[in-house]
Amino acid sequence: MINVDSIHHVRGESIYLDDIPLRSGTFHALTYDAPVAHAHIDSVDYTEALAMDGVKAILTYKDIPGENEIGGIFPDEPLLAEHEIHFWGMPIAIIIAETEYVCRKAKKAIKLKYTELPVIVDPREARRQDSLIFPPRTFKLGNVEKAFEACTYIYEGQVDSNGQEHLYIETQGAYAYPTENGSIRISSSTQGPTAVQKTIANVLGIAMHKVEVDVTRLGGGFGGKEDQATPWAVITALASYILKCPIKYALHRMDDMRMTGKRHPYSSDFKIGLDADLKIKAYQATFHQNAGASADLSPAVMERTLFHATNTYFIPDVEVTAYSCKTNLPPNTAFRGFGGPQGMFVIESAIRQAAKALGIKARKIQKANLLKNGDSFPYGQIIDRGEATNAWDTCLSKFDIEQLEENVATFNKENSRYKKGIGIMPICFGISFTNTPMNHARALVHIYLDGSVGISTGGVEMGQGLNTKMIQIAMSEFGIDPSKIKIETTNTTRVANTSPSAASATADLNGKALEIACRALKDRIFEVAADELQSSSTALSIKNNLVYVDGKATTLSWKSLITKANLARVCLTENGHYATPIIHFDKSKEKGHPFAYHVYGNSITTVTVDCLRGIYDFDSVHLVHDFGKSMNTAIDYGQIEGGLVQGIGWMTMEELLYNEKGRLLSNALSTYKIPDIYSVPKVIDIKALGTDGHPLAIRRSKAVGEPPLMYGIGAYFAIQNAILAFNPDSKLRFDAPYTPEKVLMDLYQNE
Ligand code: MTE
Ligand code: LUZ
Ligand code: MOS
């Protein structure tokens, strides 16, 4: 089934935040944000700005009727700065004016006096100063000290990975207007409507039932709107509530880039120990997560790093520790992979370090250590239905790794200026929110009198194809055409208390809830049909909008069945609730079974490096991915391509740069480069592993949103191998992104 949104997208008919017609009397908001990363606020003078034509108000923390607090996990983040500035771009005040243009003019007239304070941008420096968001955590398996004593080979090293700008096409924004009795309705470009609702209620000091949040769809989220859509929504709601008028605020690209958090940069140390058979016997790592100025989702991101520290390998003795380091950057946040990629880059780097020292291919070590059924992850979950070896072997044989390697070797022999390299990147990604209580969802289904169906779930469509998958579920449960089914907006008054659309689990959680609702409705209307057709309800089915008895078509249509059910006073509305069974986790022991299942895959990336200029081109990515039984291959392949390219961008060209004062220098698309049509791999060849899927995946179709991003890590090692083909003495550097500047330096340096 094709993506139901595609046709409306290409015609420009789909509704995004900026397409909502503004009510008359709408004012515009703009934040006055900090021009410095760490300072004490001495005074702010708004007089001149307030006197400008068209300026309605300027709101500060003093105007907040409830709590000046927006922290999602820890209450450590003010909406508006009070006496101290913690990062460059921190909101201080809200300017409300007739137009955005006037807001911008007024902003220039605000006079801030401040006293600068020392700025921390580096997570290791933060740790030295004991500037932590919360205490470190350690995951342990076996006894790593003893295991290292028995190792034949031990290697140590440092690995850095930079952050990443989400660059959703639609920037952050919201539109709020007052409704009656002190209530408020708000459209927000958010992955987490309930987080927006709850935080608005807290800041306004009103009950959640007075706040209605509505989301049609997002022009991309990628994690950047899991938590960080909230402040912008709260700003519009606050202004709307106080000034009693509609307020619109959509961020300019450069404001969005400057003020919002990104993927967390990490600086990590590893120690890896192997025996003579290349079995990894011991692994130790310390992760320094650059959390930025407040917690945001950092605790959860850090946790996912620990969960993915050993990627797809079994290591009997492991000790991994993570520090969430408080710096003066904008609070960093969720980004596709959610800390998993950062952890996986470190173990993959450790394997490359060992392989180079031993003079062997990294794939010999990778292959020797793949997870098998019955193995334990460091956090105690035992592998069942593991596909690590299957994914690895299938990928390497299907794409004939020996031949690919021979082609590269021949090319490298014949060329001196250009060198090719191969990077193999297997993945294993856990599906479920690591915080068990978040793994539940609801779906509200109405069947209307004409047989058409309206569906609301807690899931947000952000380009990942959720709406299409939800329609597929309802059409197959009911046996009716997709044209009879409508997916409604995501709205907190219809589906309440939702988890954000995140963790790749949206289709699983909301889809299962929808399945439950549809089945309950079907049971009820089948009773009516059984009466009507003088059969038992177990003999009934619906196909092509027609009721069947024992597989034989009857004359009873779906539509007339619904009419009869209504006349029989049967309830044609159902609310389905789903909570993932089995999962649990005990934080006091750091053990449990946190994931419903894991997604596996393996990829081979080939690159050509220009050894004169340090630039590179990706020839191909061949990969085998574990979709289970994909319920929509077009959507799922699209997720793989998008995730892969986003991962390659993170690992190679996307370079966030903050200066030592904490100012973002790469604050525009002219200074921050994301992959474009010229930089994507010339060939992306995706093959399904062809497994049976998992019963906890929706219709055995495994979650696909985040895992493919980590194939992008293979790009880093492909470049590294091309460099080694040119200069075998080049010292291995693990410092992503591998920009052409770094490549050039490594081509010409020696250990
Ligand atoms: N695909 C598109 N087109 N746009 C997005 O914003 N977000 C990604 C992924 N794929 C995203 C996307 C992220 S970070 C997640 S967690 C999942 O989609 C969320 O959707 P799912 O849970 O339905 O997979
Ligand atoms: N969000 C979250 C996530 O709160 N918990 C998670 O485990 C998670 N994983 C991936 C992406 N977002
Ligand atoms: Mo995705 S990082 O879980 O929004």
Structure description:
The chain has 751 residues and is of the alpha+beta class. It has three domains: 6-117 and 166-259, Alpha-Beta Complex (Aldehyde Oxidoreductase, domain 3); 266-434 and 587-747, Aldehyde Oxidoreductase, domain 4 (2-Layer Sandwich), CATH 3.30.365; 440-579, 2-Layer Sandwich (Aldehyde Oxidoreductase, domain 4). The chain contains 19 helices and 30 strands. The chain has an eight-stranded mixed sheet, with helices on both faces. It has a six-stranded mixed sheet with strand order 7-15-14-13-8-30. α14 links the parallel β18 and β19. The longest helix has 28 residues, at 506-533. The protein is globular and about 80 Å long. The mean pLDDT is 98. Bound molecules: ligand MTE, pteridine-2,4(1H,3H)-dione and dioxothiomolybdenum(VI) ion. Pteridine-2,4(1H,3H)-dione binds at residues 226, 297, 300, 304, 334, 338, 433-435, 502-503.
Provide a concise account of the structure shown.
Strands 3-5-1-12-9-10-11-20 form an 8-stranded mixed β-sheet, with helices on both faces. Helices cover 29% and strands 26% of the residues. The chain is globular.
